[in-house]
Amino acid sequence: MEDYPRTLSELEARFSTDKACREYIAMLRWPDGFICPRCGGRKVWTRKDQRMLCSDCRYKMSVTAGTIFQDSHMPLTTWFRAIWWVTSQKTGTSALGLQRILGIKSYKTAWAMLHKLRRAMVRPGRDRLSGRVEVDEAYWGSPEEGLLGREHEEKAIIAVAAEEDGNGIGRIRMRRIEDVSRESLHAFIAECIQPGSLVHTDGWLAYRGIETLGYKHKVTVIMKKKETAAELMPRVHRVVSLMKRWLMGTHQGAVSHEHLDYYLDEFTFRFNRRTSRSRGKLFYRLLQHAVVVDPVPYSLLIKHVRGDKTR
To answer: What is the pLDDT of residues 149-165, one digit of tens each?
Structure first.
């Protein structure tokens, strides 16, 4: 049974101490009871320093080890309030906004917290999109004069996939890609969409051949139609419009290409849960992700280390 606070007052009452937060994290990490990562033992003792001690192999560990909270000097009570604030704001929040609302002294600390939470918004092993899916690319950056079509110099390229849900939009996926080549676009489709699905694209030649990856392919050549691209492929164009409006509104457009992926992760997390009526459940889901995502020190955050997923 899912167990989470429904209101801010419930959050404040339930998680007023770091001990209560640690117990909740332990429940999320080991819903069926503690399992020692070293020997698989099930018996554990909690030491006075709050570290856990396996009674079988005597391995000592913190409940936050291996999570985004590892090595953080910020109290868990502050982390929990940050997660509540981030998930309760429909349009998200900036690092400056988080710093002000929680009274965090350092902007750098608030920025790092937000970026760690954004990394946790992508659940490892999440399901791929399925059914009928529109796929297209978008560009982020300042206008570039003298370039046509898909030509670009400094702009970031974003691949977008949106499930069809009747006349509406189901789940989405977004990722920055290096270019609009066959290699980049096919890799994005394979990563984000379940084989057997129908992939709807425009006539860009790089999309050719996705049938060999196990997909059905519907092609709409935009230039030969009376309707606009937004009318022929309304879902991806609607998603891109909302994404850009969000980046400009909440973050004033101050999003670097190096960290763009994580803002896209946040937008995707929010969009895919836009119909949820429970802010508490969003808090619960983000915490679930936070305890299974590997920790990232600040030195790597600012270097934008994300493995192969940036390309």
So the answer is: 555 457 899 999 999 99
Name beta bridge partners: 176: 158
**23-66 pLDDT, tens per residue?**
999 999 999 888 888 888 888 888 877 888 988 899 888 999 99
Alpha-carbon gap, residue 46 to 292, rounded angstroms: 21
pTM above 0.85, yes or no: no
Kindly report, residue by residue over 69-85, the tens digit of the pLDDT.
998 999 999 999 999 99
Nearest to 291 by CA among 25, 34, 52, 60: 25
Q: Which of 250, 284, 288 is nearest to 266 (CA)?
A: 250
| Alpha-carbon separation of residue 142 from 44, 139, 304 (angstroms) | 55, 9, 21
Start-end ranges of CATH 3.30.420.10 in the chain?
132-243
Query: Which is the CATH superfamily of the domain at 132-243?
Result: Ribonuclease H-like superfamily/Ribonuclease H (3.30.420.10)
Residue 199: φ, ψ to 5°: -105, 120
